[in-house]
Fold this sequence. Notes:
The protein is mainly β. The protein has one helix at residues 10-25, and strands at residues 50-51, 55-59, 64-71, 78-79, 83-85, 88-94, 106-113, 124-130, 133-139, 157-160, 166-173, 181-188, 191-196, 210-217, 228-232, 240-245. The model is unreliable at 1-33 (pLDDT under 50).
Amino acid sequence: MTRRRMVLSGFGVAAALALALAGCATPAGTGGTGGATTEPAPAPDASAPVAVEVDAAWLDDGRSIGIVTQGSSSCIPMAEEPTFADGVLTVTLVEPENTACTRDLVPRVSLVGVPEGVDPAEDLDIVVTGEGYQGEVELDGVAGLAGPGGETQYAPSAGWTDTDGQFVVLTWGSSSCPPVFQEVVATGPAEVTATVEEPPADQVCTMDMAPRAAVLVVDGLEADDGVELVITGSPEFADARTPILGSN
Length: 248
């Protein structure tokens, strides 16, 4: 491509400079001859929620959903009672108060009970709101789940999110001694083994029965669905097996 160059005489340079200065001297918004009125850009709405990415997974035979957000690993938000209307599940997350939070940024899970009217076999639109943020996710339906209502069996369960290789695992037991997963590997074309760290012998645990959820990631699976999770490494689970609901 040939570029054209223009060479100005000394007089031409001076004239061009004078015209430029004259243009700059025109006050904005005066609408001089042939000039355009300059309007200030509107200020951003500071009250508008920030859009964030969220994930979701079916758990406990469709009785619960795990909502995955990014934030401090030590300050997991709690979900208020969800609402379901016009095919949309709305979940409000509340940050814990008076808690010192670590400054890491990791995926963490907030558990939500599935309200009546939700059919786990159908795709579900979920809107998640929190303090100054909002996110949306579509959770693919899974056929054959029990869905809302009925009693939990207090057995481990797991479900895939939309993020490749990521799933949520739900276990039941002492709220003060959740399992610590130290290794997650594909041990077959459709099998994932998650090894739990053996708890210290002198660890004191509360005697309650609470839900404990964690986000895990696995690489190297060959199957997209029909994957089974094996939890091992601790007498609490004794090589428990559960399907990972949904597709990877």
